[in-house]
Automatic annotation (TrEMBL):
Domain annotation UPF0033: ranges: 12-36
Molecular function via GO: sulfur carrier activity; transferase activity
Keywords assigned by UniProt, alphabetized: Cytoplasm, Transferase
Single biological process term from Gene Ontology: tRNA wobble position uridine thiolation
UniProt xrefs under Gene3D superfamilies: TusA-like domain
Entry's EC annotation: 2.8.1.-
UniProt xrefs under CDD domains: SirA
Enzyme class: transferase
Family: Belongs to the sulfur carrier protein TusA family.
Keyword Transferase part of the UniProt annotation: yes
Protein name from the UniProt record: Sulfurtransferase TusA
Superkingdom of origin: Bacteria
């Protein structure tokens, strides 16, 4: 039997926000989440591509997904799925 896709319990839209706000908002959401819950982060700040993986590594959370996409205006958007450890 195939594994069911993991759905986020919380979605954080940090588009348009700059460092350190996206990571601070993720930190707040993770603190409120239950162990094993997934937080989805949507961002436009390129610094999240290294800040969020470091956040996960240092605090013991699992980065399930890190992807970059182009919106209709060719702006880069970042999407992360973080599972609370």
């Amino acid at each position: 039997m195939s594994e069911q896709p993991k759905l986020p319990a919380v979605q954080i839209n940090t588009r348009g926000l700059r460092c350190p706000e996206p990571v601070m908002m993720l930190h707040q959401a993770i603190r409120k989440a239950k162990s094993g819950e997934i937080v989805e982060v949507l961002a436009t700040d390129p610094s999240t591509s290294w800040d969020i993986p470091k956040f996960c590594m240092h605090l013991g959370h699992e980065l399930l997904l890190k992807e970059e996409n182009q919106d209709e205006n060719s702006n880069t958007e970042y999407r992360y799925l973080v599972q609370k450890g």
